[in-house]
Structure formats: structure tokens, C-alpha cells
């Protein structure tokens, strides 16, 4: 169970043995998988942990352009001359991510780290009155909030950005591993 998704009372009420994780970066995936593999004595998990650790050890890329960004589904407005990136996970209230999250670490790996604002909270709220900011590229995640249903409204409000595959950026599963690994190997 991930601590971010499950509270201690939820875990304690679970009728099965459980292991708590707290995934905050690409590197943390490998470390937590290694711990879990040891507890389960599972060689396949050990191999997957080593693969995540190897991926985490790769140097961060330089940004290669929006057309190359993995998981880009649909663009809106102009995203060429931006000085900041906000990865949006929720609307009402508007919520984004900080560098200290798994999503932030994936963006850093893909070369967008220098454009990410630094927040003290992992998932800060943004005040709606100042949105959108013209110098910002807003990456709207396909999940957990269904931004795909709201693209036309976001365009009318003047947002520059793109709809991105939330599974790739947000969930630390095999799909995000494969997409990030392929991207890192292609552009390093």
C-alpha cells in the first residue's frame, strides 16, 4: 500500500499482510521494490527493482522539444516560448505537482526540471484568478481528473499546454517504466 493513497487506518483494517511504500521519485520505485522483493523472496521483483534503479541512475536528459515528449496526447495554444511548466492534476481547486513527487521526478528525467517551480508542498493548490499565465505550459494529466473532457473550455480560457497521458507520468507501474526507459535511451 502506498502511504500517499492509503491511510494507516485503511492499512490496519486490511485483512491481508501489507507492505507500506512511499514512492516520491523514479529512484524510490527501485528501492521500495527491492525491499518488497526481499520480503517476498521474489527474484522477478528483484530484477524489476534493479531495472528501476538503473533507470534512476541514468543522467537526466536535456529537453528535446515538445514533439518528442512521451505521453503527449493533444496540444492547445502556443507551447513554444514558455519559461515554466505546471503539471495539473486537479481542477476546483486547481492543483499541480512539485519536484518532490514521482511525477516531478519523471519530468526532471525528461529534461523539464529547469522549468518546474519549486513548491514546499507535494501537491499545491494554485489560485484560479491568476490562471492561466502566458509564459507557462500547462500539462493537463488525463488522470486522476478527466481533463480530456474539458479541453475546449481550457482553450477558451486561454491555457497554453497539452493533454498528457497520466498513466505514464503519474503511476509507477511497468508502463511508465517502459515509456521512460525508451525515451531515456532514445534521447541520451
Structure description:
It is built from 7 helices and 6 strands, in the order αααβββαββαβαα. With 188 residues, the chain is α/β, with parallel strands linked by helices. The chain folds into 2 domains: 8-57, no CATH class; 66-187, 3-Layer(aba) Sandwich (Rossmann fold), CATH 3.40.50.1980. It has a 6-stranded mixed β-sheet with strand order 1-6-5-2-3-4. Helix 5 links the parallel strand 5 (136-141) and strand 6 (161-164). Helix 2 (26-40) packs antiparallel against helix 3 (43-57). The chain is globular, with a radius of gyration of 17 Å.
In angstroms, what separates the terminal alpha carbons? 33 Å
How does the helix and strand content classify structurally?
alpha/beta
DSSP summary, beta strand count: 6
Provide the gyration radius in Å. 17 Å
The poorly predicted ranges are none
Shape: globular
What is the CATH topology assignment of the largest domain? Rossmann fold
Can you list the strand order of the major beta sheet? 1-6-5-2-3-4
User: Major sheet, described briefly?
Assistant: 6 strands, mixed
Mean pLDDT: 92
The CATH superfamily of the largest domain turns out to be Nitrogenase molybdenum iron protein domain
H/E element order = HHHEEEHEEHEHH
Highest-level CATH class of the largest domain: Alpha Beta
CATH architecture of the largest domain: 3-Layer(aba) Sandwich
Amino acid at each position: 500500500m502506498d502511504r500517499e493513497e492509503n491511510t494507516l487506518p485503511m492499512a490496519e483494517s486490511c485483512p491481508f499482510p501489507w507492505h507500506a511504500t512511499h514512492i516520491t521519485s523514479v529512484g524510490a520505485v527501485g528501492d521500495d521494490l527491492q525491499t518488497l522483493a526481499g520480503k517476498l523472496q521474489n527474484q522477478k521483483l528483484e530484477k524489476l527493482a534493479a531495472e528501476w534503479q538503473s533507470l534512476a541512475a541514468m543522467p537526466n536528459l536535456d529537453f528535446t522539444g515538445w514533439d518528442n515528449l512521451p505521453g503527449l496526447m493533444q496540444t492547445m495554444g502556443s507551447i513554444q516560448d514558455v519559461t515554466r511548466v505546471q503539471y495539473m492534476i486537479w481542477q476546483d481547486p486547481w492543483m499541480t505537482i512539485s519536484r518532490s513527487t514521482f511525477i516531478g521526478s519523471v519530468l526532471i528525467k525528461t529534461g523539464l526540471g529547469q522549468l518546474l517551480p519549486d513548491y514546499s508542498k507535494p501537491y499545491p493548490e494554485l489560485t484560479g484568478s491568476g490562471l492561466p499565465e502566458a509564459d507557462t505550459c500547462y500539462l493537463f494529466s488525463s488522470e486522476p481528473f478527466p481533463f480530456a473532457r474539458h479541453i475546449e473550455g481550457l482553450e477558451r480560457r486561454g491555457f497554453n499546454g497539452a493533454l498528457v497521458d497520466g498513466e505514464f507520468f503519474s503511476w509507477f507501474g511497468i508502463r511508465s517504466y517502459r515509456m521512460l526507459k525508451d525515451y531515456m535511451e532514445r534521447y541520451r
